[in-house]
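Lecture notes, continued. The same structure-token format from the folding unit now serves as the input rather than the output. Read the line below as a description of shape only.
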């Protein structure tokens, strides 16, 4: 990267993924408004974050690195933990080391899966960790690398239940299935905060700016939406906002959908640290969902579901 004095130079890794594409779009819009913002995005095909030489070259000259690169196959990590941790743990250590050498701030996206999921009230950023699966163990290794190598310039932003325009996700799946099935059974005993990837992208950019201006202390932030619900509640609200009958969604338990990797039962996170960066807490999940469903991608799925007869009453 080359830049004029005063320019903020951003690098987005994992830029071809769901969140990475939204972060890149957010930064591109900022660059269009302000010539002092320069942006580069590298996807998995462009940069292997486990390659120290490649990472050092990519990070050189950057002021802020937003790491969206990750192994995201939670179930697959159970039988390929070493490979998953190579990306989510070792790769993050490589990236953090390169940022330390270059004097760059690192915003690393992590997950609620580093927590045990046994709480009964929103978990603060300081809550004790305790992953219940291989994916969470690998992500925790990444968090620890950022804290160790970038104690003053490392930011860990945990998110959960992410959905967006550019990848497979629960909200899109519910709308797709609405065109195919009269009823759906959805888990009602896992609690969390559905988070729109575009809203998280906006928050990451805001945090990066605050870091550049010296307003944001390093450490852990929770980048989930406000409020709380279950997968069942999210499915019903998705249907309701899309003009579909929410009674078509039926509650069930996690026992009906056994997965290779254990899932935390309680993934509701607190957001107290945003105030330390001068930022308001994230918007409620319902507000984020309503805005997301007004976008062309989700709106198109809802339209197809209604046209397929999705607004009728459920069959028994």
């Amino acid at each position: 990267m080359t830049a004029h004095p005063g320019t903020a130079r951003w690098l987005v890794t994992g830029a071809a993924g769901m969140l990475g594409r939204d972060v890149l779009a957010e930064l591109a819009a900022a660059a269009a408004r302000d010539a002092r913002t320069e942006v580069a995005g590298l996807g998995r095909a462009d940069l292997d974050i486990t390659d120290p030489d490649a990472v050092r070259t990519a990070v050189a000259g950057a002021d802020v690195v937003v790491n969206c690169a990750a192994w995201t196959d939670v179930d697959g990590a159970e039988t390929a933990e070493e490979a998953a941790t190579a990306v989510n743990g070792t790769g993050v250590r490589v990236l953090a080391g390169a940022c330390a050498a270059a004097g760059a701030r690192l915003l690393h996206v992590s997950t609620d899966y580093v927590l045990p999921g046994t709480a009964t009230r929103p978990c603060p950023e300081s809550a004790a960790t305790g992953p219940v699966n291989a994916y969470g163990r690998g992500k925790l290794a990444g968090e620890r690398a950022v804290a160790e190598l970038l104690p003053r310039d490392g930011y860990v932003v945990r998110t959960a239940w992410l959905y967006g325009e550019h990848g497979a996700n629960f909200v899109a799946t519910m709308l797709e299935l609405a065109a195919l099935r009269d009823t759906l059974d959805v888990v009602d005993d896992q609690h969390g905060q559905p988070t729109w990837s575009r809203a998280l992208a906006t928050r990451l950019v805001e945090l990066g700016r605050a870091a550049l201006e010296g307003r944001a202390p390093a450490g852990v932030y929770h980048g989930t939406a406000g409020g709380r619900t279950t997968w069942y509640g999210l499915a019903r609200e998705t249907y309701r906002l899309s003009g579909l009958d929410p009674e078509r969604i039926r509650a069930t338990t996690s026992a009906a959908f056994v997965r290779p990797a254990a899932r935390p039962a309680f993934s509701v996170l607190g957001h107290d640290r945003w105030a330390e960066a001068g930022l308001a807490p994230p918007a409620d999940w319902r507000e984020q969902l309503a805005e997301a469903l007004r976008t062309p991608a989700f709106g198109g799925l809802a339209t197809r579901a209604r046209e397929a007869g999705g607004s009728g009453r459920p069959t028994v």
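Point for the exam: The domain at 8-168+194-226+269-283 is CATH 3.40.50.720 (Rossmann fold).
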